[in-house]
From TrEMBL:
InterPro entries linked: Poly(ADP-ribose)pol_cat_dom (IPR012317), RCD1/SRO1-5 (IPR044964), RST (IPR022003)
Entry keyword set: Developmental protein, Nucleus, Stress response
Residue intervals of the RST domain: 248-319
Name of the protein: Inactive poly [ADP-ribose] polymerase SRO2 isoform X2
Pfam families referenced in this protein's UniProt entry, alphabetically: PARP, RST
């Protein structure tokens, strides 16, 4: 598997620019026969176990534990496997993912919006995904639904409840590359099962600061590519605690756009602020839609600046 380009690097929520998906890792022999047998399901389908001194292993483990937030001290990463794409089917899936990446990149004016995201399930289901691909849509174990599709999460903490404990007390989460393309915001509780128009490729729970990605069933085996598998232990009592259980989303107050502009002015160059202000004026005159305004806002300000602003207003969404 060739080394990927700079834009395909893992981001460690995962957001670490050093982490390239190279193919120079070797399988590690396990000293625990029971665990070795447990991982056989993955290894027979082209997954290789990364050694603990492997750079990718260290970066993924560090990012995984850090993103577990209040559960970090109780989480033990037992093994990390990587998709070697060594089987004929594995090679075909990688090539298909690249083809669709290019198609979406061309459709979206040069940006396929490829992200890394987490998917948790049972050992058997993950084995089936590695062997045959995604076959069913998923539902969140807690919180609201955002359409009918496959749910993935930028942060592993948000999807850990979907990781079902196996007979050896291990849970498993896939770290996948996901083609998001043009995203549309899906309302909580929605039963939407496909894009509202050809303009869109995937759904998110929040257009500015998404915590849930919804990949429609028609795209689940072309727009999702499993890259790594993290096997870990986490005490059952923690998964049932208030530290991790999500609650249904409630309507929140909205940040008025003028307030957002004032906050952004602390982070952005005046020339960028002038561009954003112009798009806001166009929106007020009904020359562009709110969706276009938000998209331009993200392009000009960047998600890093927007996240910094949202921390100043932790209980609000962006309004008009």
């Amino acid at each position: 598997m060739e080394q990927l380009r700079e834009e395909d690097q893992v981001s460690m929520t995962i957001e670490n620019p050093e982490m390239l998906l190279s193919s120079d890792s070797e399988a590690e022999s396990s000293s625990n026969p029971r665990l070795e047998h447990n991982f056989r399901l993955f290894k027979t389908n082209g997954m290789i176990k990364l050694e603990e001194n492997n750079k990718e292993h260290g970066l993924i483990k560090s990012g995984f534990i850090t993103c577990m937030g209040p559960l970090a001290k109780q989480v033990e990463v037992v093994a990390i496997h990587k998709n070697s794409c060594s089987t004929l089917l594995g090679k075909a899936r990688l090539e298909a993912f690249r083809i669709f990446s290019e198609a979406v990149r061309e459709k979206c004016n040069g940006n396929a919006n490829i992200k890394y995201a987490w998917f948790g399930s049972s050992k058997e289901e993950i084995g089936n995904i590695i062997s045959h691909g995604f076959s069913t849509t998923t539902e969140p174990k807690s919180g609201e639904c955002f359409g009918i599709g496959v749910y993935l999460y930028p942060a592993n903490f948000d999807g850990v409840l979907s990781a079902v404990e196996d007979e050896n007390g291990l849970r498993h989460m896939l770290l996948c590359r996901v083609i998001l393309g043009n995203t549309e915001e899906i309302a909580a509780g929605s039963t939407q099962s496909q894009p509202t128009s050809e303009e869109f490729d995937s759904g998110v729970d929040n257009i500015v600061a998404p915590t849930t990605y919804t990949i429609w069933a028609s795209h689940m085996n072309s727009h999702i590519f499993p890259n790594f598998l993290v096997s870990f232990r986490c005490p059952n009592y923690l998964l049932g605690s208030s530290k991790i259980r999500k609650v249904p989303l409630k309507p929140t107050p909205r940040i008025k756009f003028p307030d957002l502009l004032r906050a952004l002015s602390k982070f952005l160059h005046p020339s960028r602020m002038a561009s954003i202000s112009k798009y806001y004026e166009d929106f007020q005159r009904s020359k562009i839609t709110k969706l276009v305004l938000v998209r331009k806002l993200r392009q000009i300000a960047g998600d890093t600046s927007l996240r910094a602003v949202m921390k100043l207003y932790p209980h609000k969404d962006i309004g008009n």
